[in-house]
Structures are given as structure tokens and as C-alpha cells.
């Protein structure tokens, strides 16, 4: 058994406890009836972590304590079972003085419950974006066989950087584990528990979707659909009454009504909820972004060519790779008007109360004023084959790709609906979303989302004899030294397995105060060198993974003639 050391006489003194000989506790950042969450320092790896302490009340029987210990461990197993890029990582589970402690990633944030009560309800469009994030989280959990069973505003975090986080898997269960509800076991907050769970403890994916609806209801209305004076009145209303009709939900109203239906089989499916939420998001105008003087200087002076015509057509040739496309794309959140999220006192951050949970899905974004699309250059730099060539303000009146919706790939692969091939007669065929603008800059073709921040680029001028890893490494060094990649963070730069003369370079950087996420694939096909790049806001990255994979899979090229 691993114990607790104290370096002072206070025993529980803040900053003096050392758990498992490694985790130095700092200030508590959350507490509840069954435990505390501490901000701590991992002295071995020299990093901040969050440590959840299990503290059963004195009045609990040994049997009840054992049950709650099981719940704590189940929480760690549930989060660990979710193989999702935005689930907060579980670093460790240790036992100290006979009690479990969960060590997890530290996430500065406030709960959705706190934000609603301090700042007021959200607009329907913003709530829809939150809903897309939470829906993606739940779908990932359900696909892994995990039912959350306690979705509510208290278990949704809004990070200081705008991330939407679903937390606290303490009541979660596995679909194949059977029911874990028993007499006297807390099953969640009555105001956010589905009618069937309140009635007999039945849990299902539809139950989680009902709780999602109640949470989104609270996001726009400021209270739950079954808010009553006490828990008993709430349970009675759940059993006998329809939910209170929303008054501020606007376009979100039908989604809430469809999720809050009494019979699980009558509720909207996850696919239908996603479709409707995306329609609400799409109806909200995007906000133009501000060009950064540093970023503009980095590219002024580059040759800008605009071909007379771009056309869409089919054809055959060599695809970049044959990795299977993903079955469905996780949610991608679009831009949204700023919601003021004041920071809490310095040094404080809210980790999910008693929750492991995860950073799942998207973020809220900050509004940016309109600014000119160009600026004088003081320090020109040659264009890059990375995403930076195109991730800058575009000239006005660029042509848009036609709405062809070809949906036909090559060699058995299919394009997503709303995508078609772009070609300029040079022997390459690039899958691009219909309606995006396009522009040629030197040997690079830029494709931009006209209502968002995503850019897709293709550089056709790479040297096929060059080493792709060395080329990407040299380019990263050059751009960082030139100041074109502020806040640069390299996530991966390596040869791509099973593909000849191919390297993948994944990285993050700051653009106008926004964290960007990009990937560049440098490769050789048909004896020609190419580089395909995709750049988007970091919180949209997971939602774009399937699109990136589809582009890399269905791009194809033919050898140059002559």
C-alpha cells in the first residue's frame, strides 16, 4: 500500500502532502459530499495534475464505502475505456491509506452551471455548438460501451480557453456490466435524470440523450425543464407531467422537444440531433478574422497567380494512401459569437467536481473584429509548402468552386457529400468542398472555407528526390526562426508507415490569438513531389480528422507529360 507523507506539522496543510511519494498537493479546486479534487504537482515529471481524493462520510457503513470505492475506480476505468483524442488523460490510480486517488490531467475551467448562473443563459446558436460537442462526447462513450448516466450542467466544463468538456464518469456503467443501481445508491440529479431512470433505474444511450436535452434546455432557459421546489416534486413531475415548454430556445426548441420525449423510442436519434444542430450552427453568420501583421509580413512579396479556370472532373491515377476513411466524423464546431467568460481568481481552476471525465469535442470561440485583408510588408519571406502559405487573409472576390457534389472518388473510395475534384489540367485531382474559394500562389493551390477558418492547400512543386522528413524539418526550423509560427508546438514529424517517400508533419501555432492545428503531408506520387496541408482552429481538429483522411486517401495524380 502506498501512503501519504507530510513534510510539516499540519498533516492536511495545503501544499505539504505528498501522495504516493510523487504528487504534492496544492490547493483544493473542487469538493463534494464524497471527496475533493486537488491541484497538485507531479514531482517526478514536474507538471501540474489534478488529483481526486475519495473521502467517504463518517456515517457510511463499510458496505456503502466499498460501493463508493468501486464507483471511484469505475470512473477511472470508464474514462480510460474511451479511446478519444479529447478525453482528459488518466495518469495514475494509486491507493493511499486504503483509499483510491485518481491522478488526471489538470483542466482550468468553470462548470456550465456556474457560467449560466453568473453570466446568464446562452444564445440558441451557442447552445447548439455546446450540444454538438457533448453529443460527440456521448457518441464516443456509447461506441465504447460506456453510459455516462449523469449528464448535467454541473458536469460540463467551459475551459478558460473556451473548450467544452464533459466530465464526471462516476455514475457511468458499461453496457455489458448490467445495472449498477441499487437501493440507496445515488443515481444522479433528479432534474436531469430521464423518466425511465427515475422510475426504475433503467439506463440506455437514449437516457443519456434525454439528459443532454435537459442540459441544453438549461443552457438557453437558465433552469432545467423539471425545475421544482424540491427533489420529490421534481420526481413527481417527471412521472406525471410534460417538460416545461422552452421560451428562449428559438430554432433549438424542436431539438429540445424531440430529446425530452417520455418514451425512449420516441426520442430523436443521435444522427438526427447532430443534423439539426448543424443546421442551427450553419444558420449563424461567421465572423471575419483579423489578419496578423506578423503573418502578413511573412508572405508579402510571394508570387500570386490566379488561373483562368478551375474545373471539376473524374479520372484515374495514384492515390496518396489507402488507409480506410473513418466511419463518421466527430463534431466540428464553427465560429460563434464571443461569450464573456471571466476568469476566476488567480491560481484557481475548476476540475470536474469529483469527475474524471474528458476534454471531449469542441470549444467556444471569441469574436474578432473586421480588418483589412492586406498590410504593408517589412520582412518578406518566401512562400512555404506548409499550411502557412494559405492561412492568411485572401484577396476579395476570389472565385468559388461550383456546387457539383460529385461524391465519387477513385478505386472504390467515395468523396463526402458536398465534395468534388478540382483539377487545372496538370494531372492532379484534389478533393475540395463545394463552394470554397480557390487561389494559386506560386506552386501552391489554396482552398478556403468562405464562412470559416479552415484552409486546404496543395503544393505541386516539391522535389521528388528530396528526403521528406528532412524537408519538413528544415521548413519547420525556417518558419520558426522567421517568426511565422508563434507558439509553435510540434506534435509529430515522422515517416508515414507503409507509404514510400512520405512524411507527416503535425503541429500547432498561434494565429491572431487563436490556437491553430495543422498537418502537412509531404509525399511523392507518379514521380512527382507534393505537399497537402490542412489547417483549422485547434478545437475543430477532431471534427476534421475524417475529412483530412478522405483528402489524403482520394487525392490522385498522373505523371507529367513531356
UniProtKB/TrEMBL annotation:
Endpoints of the signal sequence: none
Keywords noted in UniProt: ATP-binding, Kinase, Membrane, Nucleotide-binding, Serine/threonine-protein kinase, Transferase, Transmembrane, Transmembrane helix
Enzyme class: transferase
SMART domains given in the database record: S_TKc (SM00220)
Positions contributing to ATP binding: 52
UniProt keyword Cytoplasm, yes or no: no
One annotated GO molecular function: ATP binding
Residue ranges of the TM segments: 343-365
InterPro entries registered for this protein in UniProt: Kinase-like_dom_sf, Prot_kinase_dom, Protein_kinase_ATP_BS, Ser/Thr_kinase_AS
Protein kinase domain sequence ranges: 23-281
Protein name: non-specific serine/threonine protein kinase
Provenance organism: Paractinoplanes brasiliensis
Lineage of origin: Bacteria, Bacillati, Actinomycetota, Actinomycetes, Micromonosporales
